[in-house]
Specification:
The protein is α/β, with parallel strands linked by helices. The protein contains 6 helices and 5 strands, in the order H-H-H-E-H-E-E-E-H-E-H. Bound molecules: zinc ion (ZN).
């Protein structure tokens, strides 16, 4: 299997580390690299996948204070090594099938409410395997990469593979790390692959549309609160080929999801 860690990450990373080094080592919560600076904002504008201290760990601006987080963990009886996984949808492959370790709860914020949904591509090397075993390994690789950034866990809440299988990722009791500055109340769903360079499979698209509609109904999220990553932040994610498909879904089946 190709190493999914080799994908690009962010423009800032590329500037900081040099393009070659970034290409070899960095992976963001999704790893699309802007084509040019001029196309996607000014130098220094923070991008998703930037250092963990400002994305995932508690901060003054976006997070509960540490003592409040501790109280939340106590209230929900979350202890180290035990993973909360509320309201697991039917037919979803459990996190326990692939994750070698649980989230680091001391680095996580609670996700007490979901009012929006954001769709991503994984964005590293193109990925077309329909093998579940390959997908399990790929998810664990992404989890490890996100942990190396100091994040609590894999950044997304759910993932979809080219066969259309859906995998539970970060527990939905925990805030994700998938759109910098926009993680609050935001459910993150990633489709494995790089849709700048390949097209999503019909199976993945069908599964994505059905799953997003289910989540819209579950959390009462209207269609105009279903985003792609690039609609919230300057990034290529979820790639032009998936972006087109999400636009079509929102004017089609998703528009009727809450009807
Ligand atoms: Zn993304």
């Amino acid at each position: 299997m190709e190493d999914p860690m080799k994908g690009h990450c962010t423009r800032r990373d590329a500037i900081r580390l040099g393009t070659l080094f970034a290409a070899a080592s960095a992976l963001g919560a999704c790893s699309s690299t802007p084509k040019t600076d001029g196309e996607l904002g000014g130098v220094g504008d923070p991008l998703p996948g930037d250092p963990p201290s400002s994305n995932d760990a508690p901060t003054n601006e976006h997070s509960l204070a540490r003592d409040a987080l501790d109280r939340w963990h106590n209230r929900h009886r979350v202890s180290p090594g035990r993973t909360p996984q509320p309201r697991q949808p039917a037919g979803v492959v459990p996190r326990s099938a692939w994750a070698k370790e649980g989230p680091v709860l001391s680095l996580a914020d609670p996700l007490t409410r979901i009012t929006r949904i954001t769709i991503h591509h994984e964005g590293s090397s193109p990925y077309a395997s329909t093998s579940m075993r390959d997908a399990l390994a790929r998810l664990e690789s992404v989890r490890r990469a996100h942990r190396r950034r100091g994040w609590a866990d894999i950044g997304y809440h759910y993932a979809i593979d080219p066969a259309g299988r859906i995998y539970a990722c970060r527990p939905t009791s925990l805030q994700g790390a998938h759109v910098k500055f926009h993680n609050e109340q935001n459910l993150g769903v990633v489709v494995l692959g790089n849709f700048e360079q390949q097209r999503p499979t019909p199976e993945a698209l069908q599964s994505l549309a059905r799953f997003i509609a289910d989540q819209m109904r579950l959390y009462r999220v209207p269609v105009d609160r279903v985003y792609t990553h690039r609609e919230l932040r300057p990034t290529l994610c979820p790639g032009r080929n998936l972006q087109q498909q999400v636009i079509a879904m929102r004017s089609g089946s998703l528009r009727r999801a809450l009807a």
